[in-house]
Design brief:
Blueprint (H helix, E strand, L loop, with lengths): L33 E2 L13 E6 L9 E3 L2 E8 L5 E8 L5 E8 L11 H4 L7 E2 L3 E5 L5 E5 L4 E5 L17 E3 L2 E6 H4 L1 E6 L5 E6 L11 E4 L5 E7 L2 E5 L6 E6 L11 E3 L2 E6 L5 E6 L4 E2 L1 H4 E5 L9 E3 L2 E5 L4 E6 L5 E6 L14 E3 L2 E5 L5 E4 L9 E3 L13 E3 L2 E5 L3 E5 L2
């Protein structure tokens, strides 16, 4: 489909250099889910919408921003299914390029949870020079910022016992691309950024039903660690060789969808189903650190969204439509309140983002809720696009005072 513009401005040449305004991967710089920029609190199809572009297919992956480009992925089914990587000018919505990846392999059946998040759930990542895209069973790909294919690597065609599809996003560390291919291969890979060559691979059956994106933890006076939450445990790996350094037991059993949250040397993990909860762990150590490094465990949990950490508190709205605030010091509940007028099913998949001191939570079908952090859930706005009744599963991206939202139907740029 051709772009449909609500505002027309002159085309600007796209910068090829990463800038401070980049939103380079899942939940932004450092996966911190925060921006000091100011974006509108209210918007609609007639207010503060700078442009909108129709997408050729659906997707739950978030937009990423590098220089003057905004990139999204999507999936088109039918007799000749294909995954697309699409690039637009972030100021105008002008289409810059599109790269197609035909689906010439067997995907998981379109049933169960896959009908809710689809086949394009992994958010790309960029180092400012190239893009790295994970397409589940479609492999990992490196593209230039002009859409030229650099390399492609297959990381497995397997499925979990539940066939829920792929979810984890890529992480960059030094000269490596880290891939949680738990769904595809029950393995974590490190690939060389320049060539795609496998640097290391760690296989483990316990990775099954691990859907979160790994995080890098920098230990004071020590080495970096790659931390990931798996059913029943949290692991700290050596990102240079994939070897397990430490592990700690957690109450998160069944499956783990949220990504871990990192605050200095402390790691927080949420999730699990049906045995759910949250846990705080001091990173570092060797072997089983369950007794020495676990700071607290709690029954408060998020099943899908990655909670937002802000000033010693966690905030999120879960996939049952309940707003939570808990203490990062001990996991104790500060408030738990059902959100009014949310539709049935699982109304929230996206993770919250703190923008200009306010929390923005994208619901699937009932608009984006804006509310301040504090002792009570007190929303100040809920913003909808009346003409779009498809799912909004992706977390937003932020750059240069603009908010980028995507649905299964369109990509939106919101700004003053």
């Amino acid at each position: 489909m051709k772009p449909q513009f609500l505002a027309v401005v002159p085309f600007l040449f796209c910068s090829l250099v990463a800038s401070a305004g980049d939103w380079p991967g899942f939940l932004g710089p450092g996966c911190a889910a925060r921006s000091d920029e100011s974006v509108p609190v209210t918007w609609s199809e007639t207010e503060n919408l700078l442009w909108k572009v129709d997408l050729p297919g659906s997707g739950s992956s978030s937009p990423v921003i590098v220089g003057d480009r905004v990139v999204v992925t999507c999936y088109v089914g039918g007799n000749s299914p294909v995954r697309h990587v699409l690039c637009f000018d972030r100021t105008t919505g002008e289409s810059l390029w599109s790269v197609d990846f035909p689906v010439d392999y067997r995907e998981d059946p379109y049933q169960g949870y896959i009908t809710e998040h689809g086949y394009a759930s992994n958010t790309p990542v960029t180092d400012g020079e190239n893009l790295y895209v994970f397409l589940g069973k479609g492999g990992v790909h490196s593209l230039s910022l002009d859409g030229e294919k650099r390399w492609s690597v297959d990381v497995g065609k397997g499925s979990s016992n539940r066939e829920w599809g792929s979810a984890a996003s890529l992480v960059l560390h030094g000269d490596k691309v880290i891939v949680n291919a738990a769904e595809e291969a029950r393995a974590i890979f490190a690939l060389d950024k320049a060539t795609g060559k496998e640097v290391w691979r760690t296989d483990a059956d316990m990775l099954e039903l691990t859907y979160g994106t790994p995080r890098i933890v920098s230990i004071d006076g020590g080495d970096d660690e790659l931390v990931i939450s798996v059913p029943g445990e949290v692991w700290g790996l050596n990102p240079e060789n994939g070897k397990l350094r430490w592990y700690a037991e957690s109450p998160l059993a069944g499956n783990v969808c949220p990504s871990v949250v990192v605050d200095g040397g402390t790691v927080y993990s949420f999730g699990g189903f049906r045995s759910s909860g949250s846990v705080a762990i001091q990173a570092g150590g060797k072997g089983d650190v369950s007794d020495a490094n676990v700071l607290w465990t709690s029954r408060s949990s998020s099943y899908v969204a990655t909670p937002l950490l802000h000033e010693g508190r966690f905030y999120w709205i879960d996939d049952r439509g309940i707003a939570y605030c808990t203490s990062a010091a001990d996991g104790e509940l500060i408030y738990r309140e059902r959100v009014d007028d949310l539709g049935g099913g699982r109304p929230v998949y996206a993770s919250p983002v703190l923008i200009g001191g306010r929390i923005y939570v994208v619901t699937r079908r009932d608009g984006t809720i804006v509310y301040p952090p504090g002792d009570a859930f007190e929303p100040i706005a809920r913003n909808r696009f009346a003409g779009d009744d498809t799912d909004f599963n992706a977390s937003p991206a932020v750059s240069d005072g603009k908010l980028y939202l995507r649905s299964d139907q369109a990509l939106y740029c919101v700004g003053e």
